[in-house]
Amino acid sequence: MTALLHPSFRRLKAYADGLAPSRRRERLAEHLEACGRCRDIVREVGEIRARLATWREPVPETAWPAIVARLDRVAGPTGDRGSAAGRVGLRPASGAWPRALARAAVLVLAAAGLLSAAVPGSPVRSWIEALVARGLADAPAPMPTAPPPGVEIEAPPPVAGVVLPARRPVSIVVLQAPPELRVRVTTVAGGDAVVRATGAAASAIFRPRGDGVEVVAPGAGSLEIELPVTGARITLDMNGQRYLVSEGGEIRLFVPAVDTVGGLTFTVGR
Amino acid sequence: MASLMEVPSDQRLVAAVLGGSRDALGELYTRHSPDVFNTAYRLIGTREEAEDVLQDVFVALPAVLTRSYEERGRFGGWLNRLAVTTALTRMRTRSRRRESGLPEEATESAAAAAQGHGSDASVERIALERALAAMPVRLRAVFVLKEIEGYSHAEIGELLGITRLTSATRLSRAWARLRKELAS
């Protein structure tokens, strides 16, 4: 008896998508006539595609009013609001980004890091990094516990972060770190290096540098650093001292660390 | 003869937004918010977070346009890429606990469907959402970007910082996971 050789799923999917070259398509069609298993796969792919094509969710009605409210807060009482007919709140001429806009762009910051993973010097990344760095730097002092009546203040962003392409050497440099800063390093199999500042550390300024990022003056919160062990060489320096080097699947430590489940925790020295 | 009302192009609206027009921003929102929201929703899997992405994109849009937009190509494509990168960042920065769990909405929808509140089509859609939500983030991102958003493996590689080969491999794994989930 002759064994029936099944085409790979990728080829069957290409057939279902109409992307198989004509000669291969003919051979696949012949095979499908004789093979119920592969016919089922092609049918299944077609059904999933049909479901995906019609998958549309309605936009929440609350979104636009919320955007307008946030833009109004960005513009502020003395901001450039323009006429009563409505103008967007653009960046004040002083160059000081309001906190709300910086917050809005925090997500876009690391997003730009993703964009630039393969596009070094991407203008989007450069801009957003500069934007967020400045936005956080210029952020007002910690909120009063009880804001004045009628004044709505957005809560500070719980997380600030940056994603660094780990396909080339990356340096992570933390400056002016307080002794109370908790630094936790975890490893992942692949992907990018990620630096997150949470809690009080989110007040840090994330400043791009040629081969990575500088995290300047984090508060006494927590820095979460994710290192892809299969990526390129990554170094972590804090307050002028080397803490670790990750390279070729190995991590070399230069300071004592507490090895907990799934990660390393450092105490920041002076 | 009735005259045709001129519909401003996206480029004209962009120019108006740069000039400070919130009406123009509103028109861009009307045109493109469904795509931005749905892209974010498919990537993230919860309406709440997808709305956050939608808000962040449009709140930041005037400033982003000021600094980085170039009139090359389609505005919708540029905006979609901004939505994708914003959503991906949110996916990466949220807690691992949330990432590993099913979005509550999908679970609730599925429960409602199981009680007979959904049509066949909605049950199928929910099953698809659940299957996608159960996927690891790295696989779901590639699947959604390639199979729904239409990005090439090269573009996905740029967005995720991975190689084209890795993108293709993840796509194959995503399909395998999806088929397995739907079969079960």
Describe the structure.
The complex is a heterodimer of chains A (270) and B (184). With 270 residues, chain A is an alpha+beta fold. Chain A contains 6 helices and 12 strands. Chain A has helices spanning 9-16, 22-34, 36-53, 63-75, 99-115, 123-137, and strands at 159-164, 170-175, 182-188, 193-198, 205-209, 212-216, 222-228, 234-238, 241-247, 250-253, 257-260, 263-267. In chain A, strands 1-4-7-3-12-11 form a 6-stranded mixed sheet. A 6-stranded mixed sheet of chain A has the order 5-6-2-8-9-10. The longest helix of chain A is centred in the first third of the chain and has 18 residues, at 36-53. Residues 77-100 and 109-157 of chain A have low confidence and may be disordered. Chain B is an all-alpha fold and 184 residues long. In chain B, 78% of the residues lie in helices and 0% in strands. Chain B contains 10 helices and no strands. Chain B is globular and about 55 Å long. Classes of the chains: A alpha+beta (270), B mainly alpha (184). Chains A and B meet through helix 1, helix 3, helix 4, helix 5 and helix 6 of A and helix 2, helix 3, helix 4, helix 7 and helix 8 of B.
Which helices and strands, and how do they pair?
The complex is a heterodimer of chains A (270) and B (184).
Chain A: H1 9-16, H2 22-34, H3 36-53, H4 63-75, H5 99-115, H6 123-137, E1 159-164, E2 170-175, E3 182-188, E4 193-198, E5 205-209, E6 212-216, E7 222-228, E8 234-238, E9 241-247, E10 250-253, E11 257-260, E12 263-267
Parallel strand pairs in A: 2-6, 2-8, 3-7
Antiparallel strand pairs in A: 1-4, 3-12, 4-7, 5-6, 8-9, 9-10, 11-12
Chain B: H1 10-18, H2 22-44, H3 47-68, H4 75-93, H5 96-100, H6 104-114, H7 120-133, H8 137-148, H9 153-160, H10 164-183
Name the descriptors.
heterodimer, A: 270 residues, alpha+beta, six-stranded mixed sheet, 6 helices, B: mainly alpha, 10 helices
* Biggest beta sheet attributes of chain A: 6 strands, mixed
Helix/strand class of chain B = mainly alpha
Using only C-alpha atoms, the radius of gyration of chain B works out to: 19 Å
Helix percent band of chain A: 25-40%
Q: What is the percentage of strand-forming residues of chain B?
A: under 5%
Mean pLDDT across every amino acid position of chain B: 81
Q: Uncertain spans of chain A, ≥5 residues at pLDDT below 50?
A: 77-100, 109-157
Overall average residue pLDDT of chain A: 68
- The CA-CA distance between the termini of chain A, in Å, is 75 Å
DSSP helical segment count of chain B: 10
Order of helices and strands of chain A: HHHHHHEEEEEEEEEEEE
Low-pLDDT runs of 5+ residues of chain B are: 95-102, 104-117
Q: How far apart, in Å, are the first and last alpha carbons of chain B?
A: 60 Å
